[in-house]
Amino acid sequence: MRFVDEFRDGALGRRVAAQILGVVEPGRHYKVMEVCGGHTHSIYRYGVDDLLPESVELVHGPGCPVCVIPMGRVDDGIAIAREPGVVFTCFGDMLRVPGSSGTLLDAKAEGADIRMVYSPLDALRIARSEPEKEVVFFAIGFETTAPSTALTLMRARAEGVRNFSCMCNHVTIVPPLRALLDSPDLRLDGFIGPGHVSTVVGARPFEFIPDDYGRPVVIAGFEPLDILQAIHMILAQLAEGRCTVENQYTRVVPYEGNSAALRAMAEVFALRPHFEWRGLGFISQSALRLGDAYADLDAERRFAVPGVRVADPKACQCGEVLKGVIKPWECKVFGTACTPEHAIGTCMVSPEGACAAYYNYGRLARERVRA
Amino acid sequence: MSGCDPYEHCITCGDVGVEMRVVRVDDELAVCEALDGDVRTVEIALVDGVGEGDRLLVHADVALVRL
To answer: Which of A187, A207, A357, B51 sits in a 20 to 30 Å window from A115, CA-based?
Structure first.
């Protein structure tokens, strides 16, 4: 397939791997964080890490919105879904995220009308076709997904669809990165920046990382050669003593992002003062709520929700995995009590979660190329 | 194109953008076809001047950029 096969070429991949080996400083250990869950998935699906020298360690970042949803928000969603006459809609992976007393899938099995949708626009279509129901969309995702929710709410407003509302859990990418950079647990050498988030926000929001923290960022695509090339670009910056934001994914990402998408988000959403991230705790101004102009479409105002903070299960070490402090297989319950079929932690629920990626693709052999 | 196969991407977590070709434009909506033949109605309000035959990066039924 054109524009895909070229980026999965094994011979080219080995050439880039050799170039990586050429810029690695002997005796130095590098920690590079891939911010985005899509990168984590590709790295283990295609065995990208197997081509890297053992001195280059990939740390899996918090860029999987399902993985960072705290249990209390799932409980709030289930409470709304159990209201009479409600059709509760969400993306498929959210259905399996455990709350304190089960998942949305469990609530569906117990009779709640919970439906999987591919987009918020699908949820709006349900609202149009079933006007006697109250249709709620459980919105999750970073800035890639938030414009879709914003346009849907603008369309609902324009069409006067009154039986539609949104429980907003959208999060933003920069605050957790700053929190990670401020964390004493973690020393990172560089970041593989998120590809499709950057189509919306552009590259500029990441400039604080080189400017304030002295770490390079390379925005990358999701094919194995994209990721390998981005790693090479990061290590080359370090070798040359440079530190900047570079864009490996120029075939898709404009440096300035999409101003129309940012305007739509600004019209519909407002920043929450703080939001709880699973494993990372409360982070200031890291999530979106519906702005006052769209308050009538806010499910959290339309329905009563418990709003109770719930601690993660003690056995679960998702927080340490999300911060890159431990590897997934170092968690006490990885692959035993916690599997994709019976997930305890959110990192095992989503295929983009680091634990599920390790589990599904069996990348447990740690034989690596020696620098 | 389903986002929910456990061995495939979750569309939000995977930050998944799908390349689609515009088949027909109808105001702020366009009928688009993915490389795998999947056909969806896509919001094109965020990309200027979309026309038939254009290639778009689409996420959750919204076009984010022209390719």
So the answer is: A357
